[in-house]
Predict the structure.
Amino acid sequence: MRRSLAIAIILTIAASCSGQSGDSTTTSVTTASTTTSVATTSTMPFAPGAPGIGDSYYPGLGNGGYDVQHYDLDLAYSSDGTVDADVVITAVATQNLSGLNLDFVGWEVNDLTIDGAEVAFLRDGDELVITHRIPSGEHFKIDVSYGGTPQPMQSAAIPIEVGWLVGPESEQFVVAEPDAAHSWFPANDHPLDKATFSFAVTVPTGLTGVANGELTEIAEDDATTTYRWSMDTPMAPYLATVVIGDGWQIVEDPVSTEEAGVPIRNVLPSDLVDDAPAALAQTGEMINVLEEAFGPYPFDRYGIVVVGGFQHALENQTLSVFGRAMVDAPFFEYVHIHEIAHQWFGNSVSVAQWSDIWLNEGFATFSELLWVEHLHGVGAYREEVANRTQAARVAGYGPPASPPPDELFNGSVYIRGALVLVALRDEIGDDVFFETLRTYTERYADGNATTVDFIAVAEEVSGRDLTGLFEAWLYGQELPD
Ligand code: TRP
Ligand code: ZN
């Protein structure tokens, strides 16, 4: 039961996707990652930054012409459900700009300034189009005040609502992968533009306001409390989260902290504080298992926050959001290690193109197999691999490296994506395989990588031509033997 359930879990997103991956487009992405270069020629004409950053699946996401360094988000939540917000975006121009776009949808924009000056802007679908002259290389601050009642968004990539969601106890939580960051703050909404973040979450006193990174201050005013959080390691906008709830506790896990050498703290409703699933106490052990396989844990902290009315889990940086149903499920431990694994694969090393999503989900799913092996030995790993291979055959999974853009998180990117790594491990042996993973996480830490980058690392570390293996597993229609 344990293992067949394990297969079920990861497919909660995939299962809501209908249909088949068989007819998917075969876009193979060769985009190299990522360092933004600043055009220094002062004679270059001033032109608007591009309205998209160049994602082949979602061309409207992200923008060109500038590089965000920091988002300072200030959100005041009232018990009537409204939010009064302000974001200060610190960025640098990478070309001579006559204007630039932010991604942003919904809300009322009350005021917009750049370096303190009012600027002209208009709203066009998911684009906030700003007219303002900024020379290449110049640093600038965009300040946007906005407000309203947060509305969820229908993702272009998955058949569920994403963005700012509200649970049955009026808990507020943001789950934004892949395209919903810009439904709750103006952003350069693509993982190619990572930035540090700070958050001030003001709530009616008694509620708890949580976000990514470190809790730096709790300040009480008359009737409100402001929680300040700081994420000092670069983060893709889709991994930013704010979660607000009533009667929650911020609970340290000293045993896991001691075990992993990484501070662990969860945010839990009170009944879970008293009676959490056993696997929640294994966070430290899981991090240890994954550090051995993937290299050092990439951030300064980890924890989960548990919300009602949500069927999934999402690996927000340093703070995964778990629906209560996931925590109560018998397969919780597999989802738990899966989301922890995303801190390396997805969060520290992020995709450069959303079409490469198997680099997140395949690797995170592979971590579930490592947990089986850790707990029950290599025979159990083999058995689980056989089960999942069988499941992949029965489902007829197509190539994991080119999922349909409207079913980005289909079963193939998870299950067959993990089997790619199983096949690679079998081919090059444990030492070289894990050295490959560690080289990859180290080389692309806090950055972006492509499928091509991963293959290159595997070939470099193994000293072998692995084209055939990757061709068959990633791009071939049939599941190889
Ligand atoms: N990355 C999630 C996982 O761990 C799946 C996912 C993608 C998701 N987008 C989401 C979950 C939005 C919740 C909400 O597999
Ligand atoms: Zn995942």
